[in-house]
User: Fold these one by one.
Assistant:
Number 1:
Amino acid sequence: MDTRFPSEKAYPFDSESSVGMKTEKIFSMQTLDQIFIIAKKIILGVTGHFLPDWACLLTSILISISAIAVLGPFTMMYLTLLERKVIGRMQNRIGPNRVGKWGLLQPFADGIKMLTKEDIVPLEADKVIHFLAPLFIVMPALLVFAVIPFGRNMTAVDLNVGLLFFIAVSSTTTIAIFMASWSSRNKFSLLGGMRSAAQMISYEIPMVLSVVPVIMMAGSLSTNSIVEAQSRWHGLKWFVFTPWGFLGFIIFFLCAVAECNRSPFDLPEGESEIVAGFHTEYSGMKFALFYMAEFMNSFTLSGLAVTLFLGGWQGPFLPSWIWFFLKTYALIFVMIWFRGTLPRVRVDQLMGLAWKFLLPLTLANLLVTGFWYFTSRPVRIAGSMVLLALAFWILTKLNRDVVPEKRVYHFAE
Amino acid sequence: MEKIFSARDPSALNTETLEINFGPQHPSTHGVFRMNIVCDGETVVSLKPVMGYLHRNHEQIAENMSYAASMPYTDRLDYFNSMSNNFGYSLAVEKLANIEVPERAQYIRVIMAELTRLVNHVSVIGFLLNDLGAFFTPVLYAFREREKILDIFEEVSGARMMCNYFRFGGVKYEIQPHILQRIKEIVKKFPKFLEEFEALLSKNEILCMRCQNVGVLPKELAVSASITGPMLRASGVDYDIRKVDKYSIYGRFKFRIPLGEKGDVYDRYYVRILEMHESLKILDQALKDIPATGELVSKKMAPFLKSPRNFKPPVGEAYGRVEAPKGELGFYVVSDGTPQPWRYHVRAPSFINLTILEDMCLGHKIADVIVILGSVDIVLGEVDH
């Protein structure tokens, strides 16, 4: 029985004969590119000698799962360190540097601290739901790792509806947040939950609609085919370089920031207003799970943005997975940058941005993509740029009430 | 359930208001301030400030000790600006006992008071941005500048925040020439920092959206509620005690009073920035004119530095007030000829400015309440004296 996944078959250098024919330099490059796939195959080859076929299949699945299960929390741990370091630098201070060299062991110290803390459950809380909420929030955050293409052939499950799966699963986070806020019996939590429900549902819509142009152009919902569709020009023909792709990317990224509750859209946990929002009443490892989900969400959403608009793992010279991680971390850096720079918006302004501005703009973007698809080169670039600029201008004019006013100050002698 | 769905008309839904207890343990009530907020959704319907969690009987304590002994207690009123507090108390007692302050001490006093104003305004803007949700970046840049000024305070008085530097009829310690040189450098570099600070903040779209037309305080209301300080001037009322009283030597300096238009949070924020520019002008002039040598404490008061309990002002009463960074800080002292004041009262600006919080907050969102509170600029040590 063939234990390989369908995506692995498509790789042209898969069989040993074709690899052997290349020069040594290219061979090493490809090995580096496929190093994780090769490692997996070696393990499967060894186990294949003494295990039955069904166990081989199970091992293959287990390897993928454990890779994700390690990658997810590990990414989260080091994202916390990265965030603290980067924000520290932005704020003219050093950041964690006591535990290990450059504070590299800080996440482990934090983990130990979180695990050994007392777990406090409020007396009035709905105990079952209060317990389940942190689990329910981590599950979708881990599940969506399955469809992210980390590199060439490195998608755990190449679903043909991968994108739909991602959006559907990640949208269940709202339920977990609402569970947490409702079961805590705390008014700050409740306010946080209300904000979160309103915010995440509103931002889901422009986010999904900003993805539709990509689906139209790639003709597929599979994340792998979307990456393949951006493979021309030596892997540099990314969707972001087209007018509709650029706008779609900006909208998608803004919505992604709002989806994972990060500044300036961190209303559900707005520290200065509602203490900690929906996780006010959580402590210890349960609290850490909320943080884990938040950081994993920001990683996977950045990863999806990279997959959809920035060519995924495509790129010259470097191995594919390095390209993917470089791009993803660049986006995460931008998110941290936002956090270090921007104040928070108010809840009505947040809703206004989603419904009055982003949503009509995504609809205009959809139309422009259709126009792009059916016209030829010189017309489509100029035409779509003009159309988008027009839509942007009209929408800014219509939302004129939020544009800041100029003030003149007088002086008395 | 029946009650909710009995009405056919959806606008007749039977909704309830939510009563929230904000504080005293809350990350952004600037200490142990508490508000009872009743809100409809997120809109504030009523707001009741509850004060007194930091009450320490300041006035009663001062009435039971010598005049000079309560000088360190005034540091703890508004612990950001101990120099201005000392200034106000010294003025009151000097009026009471008719004490002249030597020239050099006058200049040192003005320099310290204006440096304090810089410290206060720069950090209050940082905290306001923190309340707006900017994750500590403005506040840390503000604190970088504040540190430099606190270093100066440390060198002249020995303490960074609780300075206890003023004495009746002068100041305690000599100010060395190299410190004056360092103050000159700070004054020279400060405008550049302010420009940088402003470039990041003043035209930020989110800041404008959050601050403009939020928490409007009309002129008439501000005057009738006896609001003072930058809050009053942001509402467009030209009233600055430095100009009105010309106390100490403020009459000698050229400076302007910035006035706001609308009296919203943005005006309060911007008036403070403009005030810092004016303070720098005063500092510039004071550093130029300060006499190189001279007495620190008037001859009349010099013996009482060693034996403060022998200081007995004549029977009478006096009210000394200064333009503290937060507003009019007044000390009312009544003497009965004994070494202890018969009555001692503090007019705390942030306490009086806080009384109007509800009028500014009604109809706004909860997030705005925090921002409005931040723009009032309170220090709980002073509110609950």
Number 2:
Amino acid sequence: MATISNAHSELIHDAVLDYYGKRLATCSSDKTIKIFEVENDTHKLVETLHGHEGPVWQVDWAHPKFGVILASCSYDGKVLIWKEENGRWVQTAVHAVHSASVNSVKWAPHEYGPFLLAASSDGKVSVVEFKENGTTAPVVLDAHAIGVNTASWASAALQDGSSSLQERRFVTGGADNLVKVWKYSPEANTYLVQDTLEGHTDWVRDVAWSPSMLLRSYLASVSQDRTCIIWTQENNQGPWKKTLLKDDKFPDVLWRASWSLSGNILAISGGDNKVTLWKENLEGKWESAGEVEQ
Amino acid sequence: MTIYSQAENAHDSSTFGKSLSLRVDGGFNALSVSPSGRDVVLASKQGLYVVDLDDPFSAPRWLHHLTSWEVADVQWSPHASKSSWVVSTSNQKALVWNLSRSSSNAIEHVLHGHFRAITDINFHPQHPEILATCSIDAYVHSWDMRSPRRAYYSASVWSAGASQVKWNFKNPNVMASAHANDIFIWDLRKGCTPLHVVKGHSNNVNSIDFNRASETEIMSCANDGTVKFWDYSKSLQEPQRTVVTDFPVAKGRYLPFGKGFCVMPFVGGNNSVYLSSNVTESEPGAVSKLQPIYVFKGHTDRVSDFLWRVKYSGGSTVDDRDFQLVTWSKDNDLKLWPVNESTYEKVDFQRHRSLEHPFTEYDYSTFRQEPLRSQNLSSHAHFPKERFVTGSGLKEFHDKNRINHLAWVSGVRMHHAESPRSLFDLDKLRNLGEEVTVIGHKFPKVVFERISVSTGSLTLTLSGPWSEQNPDDLVFLRIDCVFPPNYPFKSPPRFKIEENRELDSKKIEEITDQLQEISRRHTDLGKFCLEPCLRFLLGEKINLDVLQEEEQLLNLDVVDSLGINDLSSLESSDMRSGAISVTSRTSDEDEQDLDNKSSNDGYVSRSAHALDLDSTPIPKGCGATWTSSGKLVCFFTTESKPEKKQQGTQRLGPRGSVGIHTENLPEQLYDENKPHVPKRPKRYVETLSASSAHNSETGISGNDSDSDASFDSFGDDDWNDIMRTDITLRTKMPVFSNFGKSLASVASDDGKSNVSVAKSKNAVFIQDFSHLIADKRQLAAEYIFTGDSLEAVCKHNANVAGNYGLENIAHCWKMVGNLLIDRDERHNANFGWHQNGEGDKQFIKDVMEFLERSKNVQMLAMFSCILMDPPSTKRDSVGARSSEANIITFEYEDQSHFSQSRQGSVAPSIRSEDYFSPRQHVVKNRKPRLSNTLTPSEVIAQHSLLPDIRIEIMNSSELGFLGGRSPSLLDPSDEPKYRSYRYQYSELLFYWGLLINRAELLQFNSKQENTTPDLWHHSLGYGLDLRAEKSYAGVSYKALNNKISFLTTRICNYCELQVLGRATVCGNCQHVMHAQCAKSWWEQSIECPSGCGCQCIDMFDVT
């Protein structure tokens, strides 16, 4: 088990390994992003990225076919795109359409191309396409009135070439306690709300779309109300079914949900400083699969 | 505070020798400076902006010209006689503007000779009427404005488009243009053969510049990251000097003074302009690294262009020129940078040296103002001077075709280079422009009709409760304000309220008197008074008595700006440590200026949003993310001190008594049944204020209890301790205004000390949980998809799973294997097996459902591959096979290749003992033919581009019979689902770097689709046998043209990016790869990367 302690002088808000599991990016309230090279149990700090003017909330690695690219979002309302070229990290782009803290940033599944999804406390989400000629085409959507806390892409199920791009979907969670599912509308060239999911009684802090498309689509949403709801939809259409991950409430507010690569295991974390793992058994019930404590 | 008077000559310029930043939104792309140095022109798709640099607060003149093309270049004529001429590009045309004409009619000539986009324009240095243009159509044209219908000189290089064209300064007949990697020197007298061709760059030349002093010296900058200095009278291959930079160089020019040059990067290079000296003579051919003597650093995006603004006294016999750098950047800031004395010295610029010929004198006037119209009456009638302000009048004011003056003014940032700005200077608003900006954002209902910062006059309209009949009615007011030059220091502005039907003159006088009183009291203290005056006009009570005591708090912005300033100072020092060492005092200040500006912008937007609505949730201190390899990255806060919590509850007492905020409703929602759960703030701002409160409690005397009550208090000091570490960022946040001065002054000191306290707070763990994940890389590496028989495949895979101790999986494989054997036997024994077949189907369905429930993508994909082929095709009698072989005949010599490729793709042969299969000998004698599974129509589709193929379907009755006999074990209606499983698994295989396995897998999907999935370069490169390069050297490369319309040809099957330019197309399967991708792929494999099974390399005549 590799352990990196006290890499940042302040609270860490996100830590993500890249596609190959070789590089770790962490971000913190100290306004920096750090890149580590991780090899088995050893790690080496390779770079500290300065550029944000506020705490950095989240980072996300782009698929390597686009190069070694990292996106980060911050309280300063900006999304910065970083790129490594010949061992040097440079800031290559700024996405600054939001007027308040950007709380979440996610690259789309690589099949869609270089699309970036950002959720902001100004109540909007934006989808930016980084086109080949260097220009960007942001689509800004009003999503949740008080603020959008999180956004997550649906995985790209296999579709035929061009039409898969038309199937783009993502999910947002906001301070209005709602979870909304959005779908790309080619006619309007924008994203429209497909479903609005009500179930939480407090701010939704994270939503995660399961990367696997087996029998059904899985969404996990965690909230400030100390519950986690699993939403399922059959065959990518029809109504969403709501299942509480656990009938009683968690001991503290929940912050983060993450699916393993084929959607087998869900990792939930929250204010009690614990990570719990969950797995759906053959009867469709969710049961604990482990716990991680520092 | 200075009022910018209209300068009569360059020496009175108010902006020279200062740094200035002007934000100009609107996608401007090109910049040029007028010869007098007073105006700059910016060009965009919307037209031209003419900005008077001496009066940056005035809105620019806008010459409309809507095009859909980016303006590549704009040039202001450098000649005194034509100082009103500006040339801009509009795709393949060049527009000659005459700024002394009215804006609606300013285009004097349109130069139309190129047939593709113009890239550069250059005025002749001696002849005012002559200019040269170059274009990507590879032509260079020279134009004479006296006959602008067509170019009088044209030359072309044919091979490559031109990036720049420049006239020689010494020889009026010589010009140079840059085409691709080469520089061509033309002599107008020698027709269209180039005089010289200078070759030496290894990548595109972006910029060239002739030396002003020496006729045959030219410098060039290129994408290869070098700046080369040539003397084409000496050598056309060997540069006199090469300077190497670590960025592609976009532009580079000789300095107009001394011996030196300036370069700017295309990308990278800190978005700076580098000034370097050429003073030291080096031997010819020397190569050196760029050693800048000054770096103009401060832009946040790449610099588009840089220019020199010059001032000197006309007619003087000594060289008293003074320069200022003007830069324009993609970050939408126009910046002016002063040049200091030491820089002049370093480039050997001898100032005050006597001149033989005085410099040309230019008329120091601006073209920002619209030229006066002809004085005849009719035009007066058309353009009434007074605008009657009604509803529609206001609308017109906001007409989008007009520049929003307020927005413009707010973009201007200026400070005097010579006065080091004290960060804690209360005089935050440094001039009227900034005051107007702040107020404009603060009072959106107040309309500024006219802003003239330079003359200090404003006209604004608002509605205030001044009605005498009904105090609730709002009365429309229009006020003229005139600010004296040394406002706000003891010189109050004068107000004049316009006559109004709803107000009598007595009332107006009364209001005016009060306004004068308010403004006088403020300006006596040296304060800006516009805000209190407006508050008064909007109906607020202004208490002038507290002015003295509360001077700090009167304007909350002051407190804010303290925080902002404080932060910017911290930040810039951070940046400085990381930045290159060549930063001088002034550029540091500019940096601060920039920081200041950006945080100001942030402030403006955020304050408009109202702080109460900052809904940023509290930060996550703990979380976990999965990685592709089944590892879990967890991060925690590592502090948990129970004794601290004790302390916390004690502390809660006094604060609780101060008063708990009632607004925080949502917390109740989850607190109802577990009171012991620590209460937690939900919003980030609350944690900020809370930690500040905590801070104030411990750090400062607690006389700020009032402010304390205004925000949330909550219980968990543990949390406080965590959040307290955020104090450095808190200093910039607008939250701060809540606390007033006492906190603000403390924060910066405290912030630093707290950072050091806050060590040892977090940890990141990477833990392996792959045992929980059903999909295993080890299995994937050893699993096979195809073999001598399905049973053999199952047996092999069962063994693989067994070897890794995965009994469940092994069992699964065995069961399916047994089923297949069983099925075979039944098939042999008895022809009427249909009923049993249903049972098999049901069994497989159950297996798949089980796997779906257990989310085992790997097994699902494996089964959906293996069971996809109808098993019967593999064990047909020889007779049936021979008839099948007749199904498709190609009248095409490649037929053998085709079938060969199909067979080759089934390559991995298993020679293990196969006890499942009773008829092993039969199986061994046959090669499985995947092509059998292609239905004829698909064959047509796949090979439709092959010429001369005739497809005949013979023995169709038997085909139908065969088809009926071989139902798939998988439900065909679920095929999309199975394809999706295979696709997902292929992604997994990609993660694991099992590229060959992936290609094998994708064959199963490509059987149904023509559009093949991607495969792109894998940087880790697994140990695959490398083939000699010559094995694919014979593959034909061809450039794709648009006529090939179907999808597969346009996407590289290796990197999945669009193919433009050089590519390889397999003549057999029609799959396309970039030439580069093909090279790297075929070092690894012989099969097509799309997984179609074609052995592309064998399709070509490889020698």
